[in-house]
Amino acid sequence: MKSQTNSELFRRLPSVDEVLRSREIASLVSMEGPTAAADATRAVLGRLREELSAGRIDEASLELALAGIPQAVEQQLRKSLSYSLRSVINATGVILHTNLGRAPLASSVLAHMKEIAGYSNLEIDLTSGERGKRDIHVERLFRKLFEEHAGETPSQVQEQPPVLFTIVVNNNAAAVLLALNTLADGGEVIVSRGELVEIGGSFRIPEVMAKSGAVLHEVGTTNRTRVADYEQAINERTRMLLRVHRSNFQITGFTEQPVTGELARLARARHLPLVEDLGSGSLVDLRMFGIEGEPSVFDGLRAGADVVTYSGDKLLGGPQAGIITGRADLVARMRANSLFRALRADKLIYAALESTLLAYVKRDYEGVPALRMMALSKDDIRRRVEDLASLVQSPGIAIDLTDGESVVGGGAAPTAILPTRLLAITHETLSADELLARLRASNPPVVARVEDARVLLDLRTVFPEQDAALANILNFLAQQGSLS
Ligand SMILES: *Cc1c(COP(=O)(O)O)cnc(C)c1O
Q1: 316 C-beta closer than 6 A to ligand 1
Q2: What would the pLDDT profile of 137-186 be if each residue is shown by its tens digit?
Q3: How many CB atoms lie within 10 A of CB 393?
Q4: CB 139 within 8 A of CB 151
Q5: Is the C-beta atom of 225 inside 6 A of ligand 1?
Q6: 246, 213 contact by CB (below 8 A)
Q7: Which residue intervals of 242-368 are DSSP H helices?
Q8: Could you tell me the distance, in angstroms and rounded to a whole number, from the CA of residue 319 to the centre of ligand 1?
Q9: For ligand 1, atom 6: residue with the closest CA
Q10: In terms of Cα–Cα distance, which of 40, 4, 33 is closest to 19?
Q11: Which atom of ligand 1 is nearest to the CA of 412?
Q12: How far does residue 173's CA lie from ligand 1's centre (Å)?
C-alpha cells in the first residue's frame, strides 16, 4: 500500500523539461544558459526523489516541495556557478600567510595586471618590431636597484662588484631547482646538515636536490658546521656550495655556522660557485621596521654569494615568483637551460612584478602592502581597534582589548616581534571555536585564531577599508545563538 502511494508521489514530480519551461525560471534560463539550468534542475529533482524514497516527504509536504522547485533551482545554480576562490579578511596578524595567498597586492599592481591581461609587448620589441624577451621588463628594474645599492654599500669580498643579472621563474622552489640543475647536474653540492630544511608546503632540500640531478654532500652536524667541514668535503666531483636560509625554525644554544663571507672566500679559492637560497629575500633593510636578523638580497650578494634565489610573494611583497640574481655568466647559463622554459612566469606575473619593483625604485614602500603592514605601529593599530570596538554594540559579544604580537610569516624573520593591539572576543552562547567557524562562514569570510578560549583579531593584516565590514559581521554574529 505504502509503495503504491510512493510511486504515485514520484509520478507527480515534474520532468527537467517541464521545470525549464516554467515561467518562474525563464529569466534564469536565459541569463545563465539552458545547460547550467538543466544541471541545477536535475540536482534538485534528484534530491526530491531521494527524500521521497527515504519517506521524508509525504503527500502533505509534497505540494510545498513542488512549489519550492524554482527557488531551489535558483539556489542550486547560484551555488554551482559561484567562485571557489574568494577574498577573505585576514585577521590572523600573519602578514605573509601562505594559506591566505602570501603577499597581498596593491591596487596599482592590479591595475597594471589588468592592462597587460589583453595583448601586450611581452615578447616584441616595439621599436624594431622584432622578437623580444619577456625578462627585460623586470630585469631593467632589478638592475637599477642593485646598481644603486652597490654604490651605497660596496662588496665585502670583491674589489670590483660583479655584473649582476636577474631572471624570474614560477616560484623559489623552481629557482633552486634551476640553479642546482644548471650548475651541478651530475656533480656534488655541499650543504650543512643544519640547513637541510623542509619549508611549508613540502619543499625539502634533499628532494629538490635529487630531482635536479645533483648529489647532496652533507657536512657538519645539525647544530654546528665550520668552514673546515666544507673545505674537507670538496673533491673533484664538487660543483657548488649551497646555503639555505632556515626560514621557519631556529637552532639556538651550542651552535656554529660560518658567515656567508667566510664561505664565499673558500668558494672563490676553489673556483666553485656559492649559491644562497634566501627564501624570503627582502629588497629593503628590514631594520627600518625594527626587524633584526633577516638578511636582505643585497646583504647576501654583498657578503659574496655568487647567486641568490628568493620568492616574489614573501618579503618582496609581490606576486608568486622565484627570482634568481647573481653573477651574469652563471645566471645566463640558467636562462639557457631548457628547464627555464618549463618554469617560466606568465605575463600577469611579469606585470605584477614590474609594478611592485617600480614602488621600490621610487622608494615608495607605502605602496607595497606587506611592507606597509610591517611598518604599522602599535598606536596606529590601537586607534583602529578602539574605533572598531565602539562600532560593536550588541551585548551578545564581549570585546576586550589586549596587547599581542603580529608575525611576518612566510618563513621570514621567525623571531621578529611586531607589537600589536588585539580584539579578544567572547560570545554569549557560542564557544570560541564555534565563533571562529561562524567568522569563516561570514561574507566575506574572516580568518582569525583562538587563544585562551577567546577569538583574537589582529587588525595589522586587515585593510583599513575592511574595518567597517568586520564590525558589521561582529554585530551580526552577536545576535546569533548557538542553536541557530
Ligand atoms: C619559502 C622558501 C622556499 C620556497 O619558496 P616558494 O616561492 O614558496 O617556492 C624555498 N627556500 C626557502 C629558504 C624558503 O623560505
Answers
A1: no
A2: 999 999 999 998 877 766 666 667 789 999 999 999 999 999 999 999 99
A3: 11
A4: no
A5: no
A6: no
A7: 260-269, 297-302, 328-336, 338-342, 347-361
A8: 14
A9: 172
A10: 40
A11: 15
A12: 6
- Nearest C-alpha neighbor of 305 from the set 282, 332, 274: 274
Phi-psi region of 74 (alpha: psi -120 to 50; beta: other; left: phi over 0): alpha
Pocket test of ligand 1: the residue of 242, 247, 307 to mutate, having most ligand atoms within 8 Å of its CB, is 247
In degrees and rounded to multiples of 5, residue 296 shows phi and psi of: -85, 170
Ligand 1 centroid to residue 98 C-alpha, Å: 11
78-128 pLDDT per residue, tens: 988 899 999 999 999 999 999 999 999 999 999 999 999 999 999 999 999
**pLDDT per residue as tens digits for the range 405-442:** 999 988 777 778 899 999 999 999 999 999 999 999 99
d(CA 303, CA 42): 65
Say if ligand 1 is within 6 A of residue 273 CB.
no
**0.85 exceeded by the pTM?**
yes
Q: Is ligand 1 within 6 A of the CB of residue 178?
A: no
Distances from the Cα of 169 to the Cαs of 9, 166, 311, 312, in angstroms? 61, 10, 10, 10
Q: Is 170 in the pocket of ligand 1 (CB under 6 A)?
A: no
Q: Is 281 in the pocket of ligand 1 (CB under 6 A)?
A: no
Q: Where do the DSSP E strands lie in 60-126? A: 89-90, 94-96
What whole-number distance in Å separates Cα of residue 484 and Cα of residue 430?
10
Taking phi first (over 0 means left), then psi (-120 to 50 degrees means alpha), and beta for anything else, what does residue 330 get?
A: alpha
Q: Is 312 in the pocket of ligand 1 (CB under 6 A)?
A: no
Which of ligand 1's atoms lies nearest the C-alpha of 246? 13
Burial of 86 (0-12, 13-18, 19+ CB in 10 A): exposed
Determine whether the shortest distance from the Cβ of 411 to ligand 1 is under 6 A. yes
